[in-house]
Specification:
It is built from 4 helices and no strands. The chain is an all-alpha fold.
């Protein structure tokens, strides 16, 4: 993942470097170094940023289908099989 990609993910989430660093559990200077390619990104940080990137692009897609709430209406309920006394 390049510095430009990190910056793009952060921008898509609408976060400052400091806010992004807090969410990732790293120092803000680390985020600045990642964005300028002064320091490489390793291990869990790469996986986490890839997940954040995927969620940011999904959330920002204007044509993304809205997820309906999972709810059973009165007409779809199963009939009560218990015998009434």
């Amino acid at each position: 993942m390049t510095g430009a990609q990190v910056k793009r993910v952060r921008g898509a989430l609408g976060l400052t470097q400091h806010q992004f660093a807090e969410r990732l559990g790293v120092h803000p200077v680390t985020v600045a170094k990642w964005e300028t390619d002064a320091q490489g990104i390793r291990g869990p940080a790469v996986r986490l940023m890839k997940m954040l990137a995927a969620s940011a692009t999904t959330a920002n897609r204007p044509n993304a289908p809205a997820r309906p709430a999972k709810r059973r209406s009165e007409t779809t309920r199963r009939p009560d099989k218990r015998k009434k006394a």
